[in-house]
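Sequence in, structure out. Go.
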Amino acid sequence: MTLSVSEYEELFKSNHKKLCNTAYRITHDKDSAKDIVQNVFLKLWDKRNEINIGTSIEGYLYKSTSNASINYLETNKRHLSYVKEIKFTASASEETASKNITLKELESLIEQSLLTLPPKCRAIFILNRYDGMRYKQIAEHLDISVNTVENQMVKALSIMREELKPYLTKEFLIISISAGISALLQFLSLMIVIMLFKSIL
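Output:
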């Protein structure tokens, strides 16, 4: 692959931010996410004459970032121990939780529930629900089967339902709609909540 300095700089400018966002959503560590993306770009430049990219350069960068983020989680134990220490803010009854939860708290709870997912499971969920990738695309990016992607998505939803169970009540759904909260929710957060609600309605 031939890559000039100007082409490399343009790739960096047009892809750096979104790659950092993807890495951050998987690792939940801003500094580590930046380091991961920086290393991906450095590797691309260092091996520009050796790397054989079958698809697009952007696809290669995205795939490298996703895999590097998963590897980071799997080898960095402090993140896994941190997840074990996470405690959801509400220990009250389901009724109290459903009545008092706010938009900010709901989004925070969804983020916290994502942190409880195993590294690859979390990455697959994020790539699908946040980055809009289809199962086949995810399978190709992570070098796994489509069946594995499907199983990991089922696992992710199961774990998140269990973590968010105190909040996923019919009362909360009714209250949130009447209070206009659902209209304020970010589209992705709302879609996730709707998916999770399916298990109790």
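Check: The chain has two domains: 1-85, 91-201. Residues 86-99, 181-188 have pLDDT under 50 and may be disordered.
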